[in-house]
Amino acid sequence: MHIAGEWILLIFIILLTAVILLTLHLTQLGHIIHQRIPDRPRRRLFFASISFFFTFVAVRLLVASITHHIGPFSYVEMGGHHIHHLVWGIFLLLITGYATLAEVGTGDTPASLFMSRLLSLSYGIGAALTLDEFAIWLNLDALDYWGRQNRESIDAIVIFGALLAIGAWGAPLFQWVDPKKTSPPK
Fold first, then answer.
1. Per-domain residue ranges of the chain
2. Which of 36, 85, 122, 168 fits a 20 to 30 Å CA distance from 46?
3. Residue 147: pLDDT band by 50, 70, 90 thresholds?
4. What is the mean pLDDT of the chain?
């Protein structure tokens, strides 16, 4: 029995999003993040960074397990065509971009804050799914995923991830280490 890749991706996205949102809402870590990182835009960048890095690692592990026939996993196929995960990433980026343009999640209500966090997580997931196959869309060759050209995908992941991290993890996150040296953001 093989589990199709689209179900794995869907389950992964839902679980990752739920775990991060519950962690932020119900744990001490969520309380620290809420206290030390201003809500907009740094907290949204932080959420996007976290989901970006987790998604990248998970997708790399999933593709490696499919490639090496470990576990019951298989590629996503529709009508006999392999659907690369960058397609799902682009789809998520389009939805997230449209919702952002429509100013979803910009209010102060609990529902608006939830949507803001959900859009941030979706953006990170979509960016990771898309950039993980950067070498493929740059060179238009599916064999580049594991080939020497794949270095371009890793470079794109590192550069984009670093930009997300710089925007999100600046000084505000680490102020809790020594609260005497810095005052919390207002």
1. 3-170
2. 85
3. low
4. 78
3-14 CB burial, b ≥16 within 10 A, e <16: eebbebbeebbe
Pairing, β 3-4 against β 73-74: parallel
Global pTM reads 0.70
Angstrom CA distances, 17 to 51, 86, 107, 114, stand at: 8, 19, 21, 11
Residue 119 · residue 94 · CB < 8 Å: no
Q: Which residue has 């996503």 as its token pair? A: 76
Task: Enter the tokens of residue 127.
Answer: 């960016």
Q: Which residue has the higher pLDDT, 126 or 35?
A: 126
pLDDT at 126 over 90: yes
How long a stretch of residues is the chain?
186
* Higher-scoring residue by pLDDT: 132, 141: 132
Nearest to 44 by CA among 104, 131, 3, 95: 104
